[in-house]
Each structure stands twice: as structure tokens, then as C-alpha cells.
Amino acid sequence: MAGKFSLKKFSDIDLNDHFFDSLKSDYPGNDKTPSFDKWFVEKANEGRTALVFNDEDGLGAFISIKSEKESIILQNHSLPEIMRCKISTIKIAERFRGQRLGEGAIGLVLWKWQQLEHEEVYVTAFDKQDVLISQLTKFGFNKIGYNSNNEGVYLRSRKNVDYSNPYKSFPFINPNFQNAGYLLINDNYHDTMFPYSELKNTLQSYVALNVRNGLSKIYVGAQYTQPPYKIGEPIFIYRIHTGEGSKKYKSCITSFCIVTDVIMVKQNRKFFMSFSELLQRISNKSVFDKDELKMQYDNNNHMFVIEMLYYGYFGEGNNINNNTLEANGYWSKSHGGIYPALIRLSPNEFKQILWEGNINVNNVIID
Fold first, then answer.
1. Is residue 169 part of a domain?
2. Whole-angstrom Cα distance, residue 284 to residue 275?
3. What is the mean pLDDT of the chain?
4. Would you say 351 and 179 are in contact if contact means Cβ atoms under 8 Å apart?
5. Is the pTM of this model over 0.85?
6. What is the predicted pLDDT for the residue at 196?
7. Residues 247 and 340 placed together within one structural domain of the fold
8. Which domain holds residue 253?
9. Segment 64-112, tens digit of pLDDT
10. Within a domain: residue 337?
């Protein structure tokens, strides 16, 4: 699936595109709210922008976000007036049903909410929008009632983050984690899995790259008998430089994830699942093609799968190289000389490394 997200002005988007037909049908306008057409034109005149996804088949996603002080009026009660992040419109083309474009879109929205530091984010959806609602609930949104237009209102709050799984808490890390670690990935695979880790830390920059494959990532490895990672733990993604020049300065941490599953496929040449089961489990989330996976499956003594959720990245100029990690006691020498992927970082070490990469820890790890 080719294509990318970008930030565009409403005035540069064709309102007559058939993509908008369902929105026009769902929002014909009444005495309380304007029609979708009228609303779109008003926002275009105001200079409003939206996140859009385009590919060879045209417009595939449209997301409008606003930040303002407002109350939420429900049919049976109201929420007080505070600064909120509102997803005014979110629509994913039907041709992407069953794919992970929606996951990436919601991830972008939640990163924006995190950046704004507002207490709450919310969106409205009709009950018939089952795919959107399933993604919203997967990412921790709770239905709090219906508005006057008979739309369900789905809300998330910083004051009540659900840490029961990493999807519901995204993009906030559970403050009660016990350890963290490193996942080492060669640069060629890294740059496919984590495409926006090298960019400047701005919405305008990173939306232009690849979140079309979602935030769920798969790593297939074989370098040790038992992976040290546990479900729910944060891990730093370490990009191994394989080209010319010193790895000491060019290999670096670029991103951080939360482990969502650890699967042993093969250990000491003993298989724990068939190859077809492996393919079904990892779906389209691996950077390896089927032939590469089969070769690893047949020939490696060990094989495991790390499933993780992409939580954030340091951005251009903030990636932390090997020299800095070693000098500050976060790498192999200060941890008994063990293989870096086996290092167990303390919560304090994890936080210090985030600070080193200019990440506001208090806006990432919240109680």
C-alpha cells in the first residue's frame, strides 16, 4: 500500500471527492448543527488544516483536530468547560477495512493530544461506525453517553489512564514498570520498522511519513535462547549502524516501545509452533518476507517474536549514540559487560535516558 499522511489546508482538499459522501449523508444539517458541506467551507475560510492520507486511489483518510475551551453537552448530563482536544472529524476509507491505517491515524491523534497537554481528548461517532468504535475502544476511549445528534461520545482523560494494556494507555507509559531494556536492530530493518525516528519532533514533519502500517511492530530474532523482555515493559530501539564510520558515534537509540507479547517459536532446535501458525500470528507486521522467515525458521537454533507498540521517538538531533550511553553508564561496561540486549535498566535509568533525548518524562510517564 503506497501513500502517506500529510497536513493539508481544508481549502486544498476537494470537497466533491466521493470520499466525503458518507459524511455529507450523516451530517445533512439541522437547526442546531450545520451540514458537513457548510462546516467544511467555514473551516476552509478559517484556514483550518487536517491530517489526510493519499495513495494511488485517492483520499484514504481525513482527520480534523481542534483545541478549545468548551463543555460537552450530553443527552442526560454535561461535562464542565475546560480546554480539550476534540477530534472534529475522523474518517478512514472503506477500502482500508481490516488494515492498520486506522491504528496509525488514532496514534497520530493521541500523540497530538499528548503534545497539547490537555486533560481530555474526545470524538463522536454513530453506532453504525463499528470499525472506528472498535479502534477507539482498543486505544482506551470510553463511551460516556450520547449528544443531541444521537452520536456516541468517546473520551479519554489523563486523570484516568487505563494501564491494563499498552494500547489503552498509549501514549503514556505505566509508571509501575520494574525494568526496561534495549532491542538491537540493524539499520536497514530499523528504518523500515521505525520510519519517523529520524525526523524533527513536530506534527507537521512526522505525519508525512509512514504510519499507514500502524503502530504495532513485530521483531523476529534468533540471537539468544530466551528474550529478557516482559509484557508491559518499555524498551529502547537501538539502531545498529552497519555502514562506514564508527559505530560508537553512528549507532544510537532512536525510539521507545512497549512490549505487548513475547513468543517463543523455536528453542534449542525445538519447534513450538508450525510455520503457518507463525505467519498467521505475525500477519503483515514483520519487515521480513515469507522466504526470509522460512529460512530463519528452518535454519536457526532459536527463533522468537517480540510484539510491541511504538510509543515515541527522539527525533532529529536527539538520538542518543553509543558513546553517550557508555559514558553515562547505561551500556555494557557499567552492566557487567553483558550483551546489551540482555541489560535490564532500572526505571530511573530509563527515565534518565529519556531526559537525555530531550523527552519530557513527566508528559510520558504519568500516574
1. no
2. 15
3. 88
4. no
5. yes
6. 52
7. yes
8. 181-363
9. 999 989 999 999 899 999 999 999 999 988 888 767 778 888 888 999 9
10. yes
